Amino acid sequence: MMLGFVKAIQSVIRPLLRQEMRFFRQYVGDNTILMTTNDHMYIYLDGMDASLTPSILREGTWEPHLSHWLETVLRKGDCFIDIGGNNGIHALRAGRKVGETGRVIVFEPQERLAGLIERSAAANLMIYNFHVRRTALGAEHGFIRLGKFAHLTGSATVTPNEMIAEYVNVPLAPLPRALEQLTKKLGRPCDPDVIKIDVEGFEYAVWDGMKEWARQRDRLAIVLEYSPVSYRHCGRDPLALIREFRDYGFRVEQLLAGGRTRRLDDADFETFSQAERQYDIVLIKGNF
To answer: What's the distance, CA 101 to chain centroid?
Structure first.
């Protein structure tokens, strides 16, 4: 009977030990945690963040459906742009996929997070093809007030929110202008193949700043967080926005679990635009 009891205890403890040993985690000071992800990359995390950090510490990943999609569409030598990089977990995975001949450009206006992304890139030996710009993207050029949350330090927004604890002024630029400035700095063109946009309800402004540029592209994939509630609060018509994606030459798809996608039709557009939740939308132009 004792042997059966011991085996029962072992059956509970062993999975917990395997989970605990699965990731390396180390507090390195300054409210910063260094860990390995479930695909064996180093990442520096903000220990004060109550949004993404707990999930990544527990699971070793974040938004795996998006990671799977990026793995599918990115190729060696591609240029990936991450608008709203947060802690950089998707940019790091993209950097591994595009390799030394590719390039990753991250736009993250929060100074703290931008610094952590740079440290993570260096820890993964990606420093030469990985560029972090501490700039917000939108439809105009200048500065904008960025609202920061008290404990959700992995998130910030330029849209109204009652949970905002403080504001900081950050540089603002349309994507084409930001890429032009970066091209001059690096001495070689930054020609994106895949773009991720996740900017807490400000996606419509990022789109406004880049849509004429995007119209001229023959091949481009964009994945963005589509938040109809946020757009309505800012006076933007969510249905008109999603139809505009198609009018500018993109086929519009929903990103599903496992990185799969399904093409959306007019009935889906109506449903999505009236929803009270967010969706991950994929815009595709050309051969992917």
So the answer is: 22
State the chain's mean pLDDT as an integer.
Answer: 91
Angle at 280 between CA 231 and CA 98, to 5 degrees: 125
If one counts every other C-beta atom within 10 angstroms of the C-beta of residue 279, the result is 17
Q: How would you class 276 by CB atoms within 10 Å of its CB: exposed for 0-12, middle for 13-18, buried for 19 or more?
A: exposed
Asked if 223 and 253 touch (Cβ cutoff 8 Å), the reply is: no
Take residue 199 and report the two structure tokens written for it. Answer: 């900017």
Give the domains, in start order, of the chain with CATH numbers.
61-285 (3.40.50.150)
HEC letters along 165-186: EEEEEEEEECHHHHHHHHHHHH
Which residue in 223, 191, 275, 184 sits closest to 83, CA to CA?
223
CA dihedral (122, 103, 197, 132) positive or negative: positive
Place of tokens 């950050």: 170
Non-local (6+) Cβ contacts of 166 within 8 A are 147, 148
Query: What is the pLDDT confidence band of residue 188, given thresholds at 50, 70 and 90?
Result: confident
User: Is the confidence at residue 6, as pLDDT, over 60?
Assistant: no
Q: Give yes or no for a contact between 138 and 206, defined as CB atoms under 8 angstroms apart.
A: yes
Residue 177: pLDDT above 80? yes
Phi and psi dihedrals of 181, rounded to 5?
-65, -40
- List pLDDT tens digits, range 17-66: 455 556 789 999 999 999 999 999 999 999 999 989 999 999 999 999 99
Pairing between β-strand 261-263 and β-strand 164-173 as defined by DSSP bridges: unpaired
